[in-house]
Write a structure and sequence with these properties.
Elements (H helix, E strand, L loop, with lengths): L18 H29 L5 H26 L5 H6 L1 E5 L7 H17 L3 H9 L6 H6 L1 E5 L31 H13 L5 H19 L9 H35 L53
Antiparallel strand pairs: 1-2
Length: about 325
């Protein structure tokens, strides 16, 4: 996964679409629908030349309901909110909670679209979109949907924001072993993009992710801690543990490498720092020699541990 998604596979690292982009997507959709409707009408006129006026009127009404009204409803339902115009403009229709729309949502949007778009030439829809803080038309309000920008300009990868200082170390005893990598990725993507989210959708997303993390750890999230701050603190705790394990693994590798390379020196003689048979034991407990840095062949001084990129946690 490269983007923040919900359990229904809907991208949330997005912003609500405004009137210009929605108008362009609608214009593309109307051109496509108008072309299809014209071709179907011409075909029916040729095929239904022998019908009487009543039958021709019934066919015309059915064609209008199936193509300009039913067509967009079917397309949005099957594509989960992506019509051709929205796909071209990088837009998508989602529910208020961020989930994919279903047939009932597309039906309400399509029925209201006949009134506020087709019958009023888009005047009502434009006014409603301008008035709405999230750019929603009346069909979105009644259907409980939102049109969002699915493509945003690419930028630098944002770092996970640190938690509030008063939360650092608070979850040191939390068992994070049961949290899957997919959930960690979703939490990280939310934290790096939470300022791009709509306020309502972002708050719902943080509460849902916080609830999932708490359920995996078996410890409920503190009621007095905001969900976003809780997620930041838990991610910080995991990063500290990962850094500690990486540092310990690097140190153990250095010790093993030094002991193995120092066992035998040039010509089969014991190298510097290796135990000599018959020699008195060294070290605080008399159990053998304490490993020393190995001197290189060019006698350029002791080798240093390789850089790991991590700093030992305080």
């Amino acid at each position: 996964m490269n983007e923040l998604v919900t359990g229904d596979a809907v991208v949330l690292g997005l912003r609500p679409a405004k009137l210009p982009s929605r108008a362009l997507a609608l214009a593309i959709d109307l051109i496509v629908v108008g072309t299809v409707f014209g071709l179907v009408a011409i075909g029916l006129a040729i095929a239904a030349g022998s019908l009487d006026d009543a039958a021709l009127a019934a066919v015309s009404v059915a064609t209008f309901l199936l193509v300009p009204v039913g067509g967009p409803i079917a397309v949005e339902t099957l594509s989960h909110g992506r019509s051709l115009g929205k796909l071209a403009c990088g837009l998508r229709v989602v529910r208020d909670d961020g989930g994919p729309i279903r047939f009932r949502h597309a039906l309400v949007r399509g029925a209201m679209g006949v009134v506020e778009i087709l019958m009023t030439l888009g005047v009502v829809a434009s006014i409603a979109s301008l008035v709405s803080a999230r750019g929603r038309r009346l069909g979105d309000v009644f259907a409980g949907t939102l049109v969002v920008r699915e493509r945003v300009p690419a930028g630098r990868a944002a770092a996970v924001p640190p938690p509030p200082p008063w939360l650092v170390g608070r979850f040191a005893e939390l068992d994070l072993s049961a949290v899957p990598d997919e959930l960690w990725l979703a939490v990280r993507q939310y934290l790096t993009r939470m300022h791009q989210l709509d306020a309502v959708v972002g708050r719902a997303m943080s509460e849902r992710l916080g609830g999932e993390v708490a359920a995996r750890t078996g410890v409920p999230a503190p009621a007095e801690v905001p969900a976003a701050a809780y997620l930041a603190a838990v991610v910080h705790e995991r990063q500290v543990r990962d850094a500690r394990r990486a540092w310990q693994a690097a140190q153990a590798e250095v010790i093993r490498g030094s002991a193995g390379a120092g066992a035998v020196g040039p010509g089969g003689a014991p190298a510097y720092g290796a135990p000599v048979p018959g020699a008195p034991a060294h070290g605080p407990h008399g159990g053998g020699a304490v490993p020393h840095p190995v001197v290189g062949a060019a006698d350029n001084g002791p080798t240093r541990p390789p850089a790991t990129g991590f700093v030992p946690p305080a």
